Amino acid sequence: MLHWAFDGLLGTGLLWLAWRALTTPDLFKAIVLFFSFGLLMALAWVRLNAPDVALAEAAIGAGLTGALLLAALARLDTSNQPANPVTGDGESDLVDH
Amino acid sequence: MSITNPATGKAFRWLVMLLLSAIGGWLAYVMLVLSRSPAGLGDQVAAQLNTTGVGNPVTAVLLNFRGYDTLLEMAVLLIALLGVWSLGGLADYQDTAPGPTLDTLSRVLAPMLIMVAAYLLWVGADAPGGAFQAGSVLGAAGVLLQLAGWRLGDCFSGMLLRVVLISGLGLFILVGAGLLLIGGAFLQYPPALAGGLILLIETAATLTIGATLAALFLGNRPGLGPKKADPEKTEPDHGNQHP
C-alpha cells in the first residue's frame, strides 16, 4: 500500500516536473526543474530495481547535464548582451522553439 | 522551422498533437502486446556470467557481450567534445575569486570525489558502478574545481590532455585489435584475461570520460601550452592538483 502511494507520488511528480521544465518561460528555472527531474528519475530507477541506471542517471542526467546546461545558459547571457543591450528580446525567442 | 502565419501555426499544432496522440496510442498498444511475451536475455547472461571475468551482469553486458556498443559510446563522447571545440570563440569564464565557503568545500570535496570515482570503478566489476558512473563523478570534480576558479596548468592542457581524452577510445580499439591479432574476434576476450582487460579498459575510459565531461563544461579548446612543455614529467590524473 505504502509502495503504491510512493510510486504514484513519484510518477506524478515526474510528469509534473517534466511539464514544468518544458513550459516554464524562465530558462534558469527550467534548468533547476530539470535537475530535480533527474534526481526523481534516479529514484524511479531505484524503484525499478535498476541501481546501475539510477547511478548513471543521478551522476550524468541530473548532475553533469544540468551543469552543462547552466554553462550554456551563462554563455547565452553573455553573448546576448552585446547584441541587444536594452530589451531582453532574445530570451523570448529562445523559449518559443 | 518557423511558422509566421498564426492560422498555419495553429493547424500545425493540431497536426503535431494528433501525430503525438497517434504515436502514444501505438506505443501503449505495443507495450500491452509485448508484456505477454517472456522478456529479456537475463537468463542467457546469467548462464555465461562466469566466462566474462566480472560478477555484475550489467558490466558484463556493457564491456563484454556488447563491448562494441560501449566503444561507439566513447567515440560519440569524443565527437561531441570535438564538436564543441570546433565552435570556437566562446567567451571564457571570468576569473572570479571564490568565496571562502566554496574554496574550502572544493578543497575537501575534490579529493573525495576522486576517491568515490575510484571506488565506483573498482566496485563496478561486482556491483552497480562502472566506468561511466565513475567518469561522471570525476567529471563533476573537474567542474567543481573549475567553478572554484581552478584552471588546468599550461603544461597539462596541451598534448597531455589530448592523450587522456583519446586514451579510453584508443585503448579500447587497441585491445580489440590485439585480440584480433592473437586469433580471436574483435573484442572477444579470452575468459582467463577478461577481468584484467575489462579493468584496464574501464580505467582508461573513466579518465577519458571525466576529462571529456570537464572539458565540455569548460567549452573552449585549451591551448597547446608553452613551447617547452615536457609531457613526460607529468602524471595522467590531472584532476587532483591544486594550484
Q: What's the helix and strand layout?
A:
The complex is a heterodimer of chains A (97) and B (243).
Chain A: H1 2-23, H2 27-47, H3 51-83, H4 89-96
Helix pairs in contact in A: 1-2, 2-3
Chain B: H1 6-34, H2 42-48, H3 57-65, H4 67-87, H5 100-123, H6 131-147, H7 159-181, H8 191-218
Description:
The complex is a heterodimer of chains A (97) and B (243). Chain A is an all-alpha fold and 97 residues long. Chain A has a domain at 27-81. Helix content of chain A is 87%, strand content 0%. The radius of gyration of chain A is 17 Å and the shape is flat. Chain A starts with a helix and ends with a helix. The model of chain A is unreliable at 82-97 (pLDDT under 50). Chain B has 243 residues and is mainly α. Chain B has 8 helices and no strands. In chain B, helix 4 packs antiparallel against helix 7, helix 6 runs parallel beside helix 8 and helix 7 (159-181) runs antiparallel to helix 8. The relative contact order of chain B is 0.14. The A-B interface holds A 51-52, 54-56, 59-60, 63-64, 67-68, 71, 74-75, 78-79, 97 and B 2, 56, 58, 90-91, 93, 120, 128-130, 132-133, 136-137, 139-140, 143, 213, 216-217, 219.
Number of strands of chain A: 0
- Runs of chain B in which pLDDT lies below 50 for 5 or more consecutive residues are 225-243
| Alpha-carbon distance between the two ends of chain B | 48 Å
Dominant shape of chain A: flat
Strand percent estimate of chain B: under 5%
- Residue ranges of chain A: pLDDT <50 for 5 or more in a row? 82-97
Largest sheet of chain A: none
Using the CA coordinates, give the radius of gyration of chain B: 23 Å
Order of helices and strands of chain B: HHHHHHHH
Q: What class, by secondary structure content of chain B?
A: mainly alpha
